[in-house]
What does this fold into?
Amino acid sequence: MFRSLISFVFLVFFISPTYAANSLENLIHNASTLKHSLFGDELLTPEEAFEFSANVKDGNTLYVNWEIAPDYYLYREKIKLELVNANGLKLGDYTIPNGFPKNDEVFGKVEVFHEGLNFTLPVLHSSNNAQTVTLRAKFQGCAERGVCYPPMSKDVTLNLPIAQKLVPLP
It folds into this structure.
């Protein structure tokens, strides 16, 4: 019995503190690893995460493009495009390609884009004059680690050449 008591005392005073210290070290290491995976890398700026550009395909068509950084995604349902101060110009009906389905914690069932997105926009003219126009893109996206950006907007100024065909404004 005396031998059992000595073994118990040895375990409590010599092995348990080491085990506790190791457990505490493991806990601190695991918390540090979790912190690094959630917060360690800086988030990209919105402009870096969702690089938007637009250019003129011809007098009746614009081309829009988003380069989406790895581990980020863009919501299909949050994309809105419009011409600002368009003076006799209007965007025609356009279709945003289908994205990948995602069950989002905030928005429910949505479609998202990874890596990139591009499509064309028809431009309706009341005259065939060459002119400068501003395309405004509104969109929203998130980082895969669960951090979402507020809705953002980007304006791009484009020089439209003479329209090859007139499509009357409604």
The helical segments are 2-40, 46-49. Residues 46-160 form a domain with the Immunoglobulin-like fold (CATH 2.60.40.1250). The two ends are 99 Å apart (CA to CA). The chain has two domains: 1-40, 46-160.
